[in-house]
TrEMBL record:
Domain Glutaredoxin: 35-99
A Pfam match: Glutaredoxin
Keyword Oxidoreductase on entry: no
Key words of the record: 2Fe-2S, Iron, Iron-sulfur, Metal-binding, Redox-active center
Protein name per UniProt: Glutaredoxin
Domain of life the protein comes from: Bacteria
Protein's gene: grxD
NCBIfam families according to UniProt: Grx4 family monothiol glutaredoxin
Record carries keyword Iron: yes
Binding site residues for [2Fe-2S] cluster: 48
GO molecular function: 2 iron, 2 sulfur cluster binding; disulfide oxidoreductase activity; metal ion binding
Similarity section: Belongs to the glutaredoxin family. Monothiol subfamily.
Length: 121
Protein backbone atom coordinates (compact mmCIF):
# COMPACT_ATOMS: atom_id res chain seq x y z
CA UNK A 1 0.00 0.00 0.00
CA UNK A 2 1.27 3.44 -0.85
CA UNK A 3 0.18 6.76 0.53
CA UNK A 4 2.17 8.67 -2.11
CA UNK A 5 4.28 10.40 0.52
CA UNK A 6 7.87 10.87 -0.57
CA UNK A 7 9.18 11.91 2.83
CA UNK A 8 7.66 11.71 6.26
CA UNK A 9 6.09 15.06 6.87
CA UNK A 10 6.28 15.18 10.64
CA UNK A 11 5.60 18.46 12.36
CA UNK A 12 5.77 19.25 16.03
CA UNK A 13 2.96 21.45 17.34
CA UNK A 14 4.77 23.69 19.78
CA UNK A 15 1.98 25.48 21.68
CA UNK A 16 -1.75 25.66 22.01
CA UNK A 17 -3.62 28.95 21.54
CA UNK A 18 -3.80 30.06 25.17
CA UNK A 19 -6.15 32.93 24.31
CA UNK A 20 -8.97 30.36 24.05
CA UNK A 21 -10.67 28.22 26.68
CA UNK A 22 -9.26 24.72 27.14
CA UNK A 23 -11.68 22.71 24.96
CA UNK A 24 -11.24 25.24 22.14
CA UNK A 25 -7.46 24.91 22.49
CA UNK A 26 -7.77 21.14 22.16
CA UNK A 27 -10.12 21.41 19.18
CA UNK A 28 -7.65 23.79 17.53
CA UNK A 29 -4.82 21.29 18.02
CA UNK A 30 -6.98 18.49 16.59
CA UNK A 31 -7.83 20.58 13.53
CA UNK A 32 -4.17 21.44 12.89
CA UNK A 33 -3.62 18.27 10.86
CA UNK A 34 -5.28 15.14 9.54
CA UNK A 35 -3.23 12.89 11.84
CA UNK A 36 -2.29 14.22 15.28
CA UNK A 37 -0.48 12.22 17.95
CA UNK A 38 -0.54 13.54 21.51
CA UNK A 39 2.51 11.98 23.11
CA UNK A 40 5.23 12.23 25.71
CA UNK A 41 8.15 13.91 23.99
CA UNK A 42 8.35 14.49 20.25
CA UNK A 43 8.87 12.39 17.15
CA UNK A 44 12.66 12.66 17.36
CA UNK A 45 12.88 12.16 21.12
CA UNK A 46 9.92 10.19 22.52
CA UNK A 47 9.91 10.16 26.31
CA UNK A 48 8.23 6.77 26.80
CA UNK A 49 8.22 3.44 25.01
CA UNK A 50 4.55 3.64 24.09
CA UNK A 51 5.03 7.01 22.39
CA UNK A 52 8.16 5.72 20.64
CA UNK A 53 6.26 2.70 19.31
CA UNK A 54 3.36 4.81 18.04
CA UNK A 55 5.73 7.19 16.25
CA UNK A 56 7.62 4.24 14.74
CA UNK A 57 4.39 2.81 13.33
CA UNK A 58 3.36 6.12 11.76
CA UNK A 59 6.85 6.67 10.35
CA UNK A 60 6.89 3.13 8.94
CA UNK A 61 3.58 3.81 7.19
CA UNK A 62 5.06 6.95 5.66
CA UNK A 63 2.08 9.12 6.52
CA UNK A 64 2.40 12.81 7.35
CA UNK A 65 1.46 13.52 10.94
CA UNK A 66 1.77 16.10 13.68
CA UNK A 67 2.74 15.56 17.28
CA UNK A 68 2.05 17.48 20.45
CA UNK A 69 4.28 17.01 23.49
CA UNK A 70 1.90 16.81 26.44
CA UNK A 71 4.82 17.05 28.88
CA UNK A 72 5.22 20.71 27.91
CA UNK A 73 1.62 21.64 28.67
CA UNK A 74 0.08 20.20 31.86
CA UNK A 75 -3.23 21.92 31.17
CA UNK A 76 -3.62 20.23 27.76
CA UNK A 77 -2.29 16.96 29.22
CA UNK A 78 -5.05 16.81 31.82
CA UNK A 79 -7.73 18.49 29.70
CA UNK A 80 -7.32 16.07 26.80
CA UNK A 81 -7.89 13.10 29.12
CA UNK A 82 -11.26 14.58 30.06
CA UNK A 83 -12.04 15.76 26.51
CA UNK A 84 -11.43 12.30 25.03
CA UNK A 85 -12.43 10.24 28.05
CA UNK A 86 -9.17 8.34 27.45
CA UNK A 87 -6.83 8.21 30.46
CA UNK A 88 -3.46 7.39 28.89
CA UNK A 89 -0.95 8.65 26.33
CA UNK A 90 -0.20 8.54 23.50
CA UNK A 91 -3.52 9.35 21.89
CA UNK A 92 -3.87 9.15 18.10
CA UNK A 93 -6.48 11.23 16.26
CA UNK A 94 -7.41 11.07 12.60
CA UNK A 95 -9.60 13.89 11.30
CA UNK A 96 -10.10 14.99 14.93
CA UNK A 97 -11.52 11.55 15.86
CA UNK A 98 -9.84 9.52 18.60
CA UNK A 99 -8.46 6.24 17.28
CA UNK A 100 -6.92 5.13 20.58
CA UNK A 101 -3.71 4.61 22.45
CA UNK A 102 -0.59 2.62 21.68
CA UNK A 103 -2.21 -0.76 22.30
CA UNK A 104 -5.01 -0.07 19.83
CA UNK A 105 -2.66 1.55 17.30
CA UNK A 106 -0.36 -1.50 17.46
CA UNK A 107 -3.22 -3.98 17.19
CA UNK A 108 -4.75 -2.12 14.24
CA UNK A 109 -1.34 -1.90 12.54
CA UNK A 110 -0.63 -5.62 12.92
CA UNK A 111 -4.04 -6.54 11.49
CA UNK A 112 -3.79 -4.04 8.60
CA UNK A 113 -6.80 -2.13 9.89
CA UNK A 114 -4.79 1.04 10.62
CA UNK A 115 -3.40 1.14 7.10
CA UNK A 116 -6.91 0.75 5.65
CA UNK A 117 -8.33 3.34 8.02
CA UNK A 118 -5.67 5.92 7.13
CA UNK A 119 -6.11 5.24 3.43
CA UNK A 120 -9.90 5.63 3.56
CA UNK A 121 -10.25 8.56 5.99
Amino acid sequence: MSFNVLNNDIQEIEVADKSQELNSQIEGLLKSGKIVLFMKGNSEMPQCGFSANSVAILKHLGVPFKTFNILNDPEIRQGLKEFSNWPTYPQLYVNAKLIGGNDIITEMYKSGELQDYLKNN
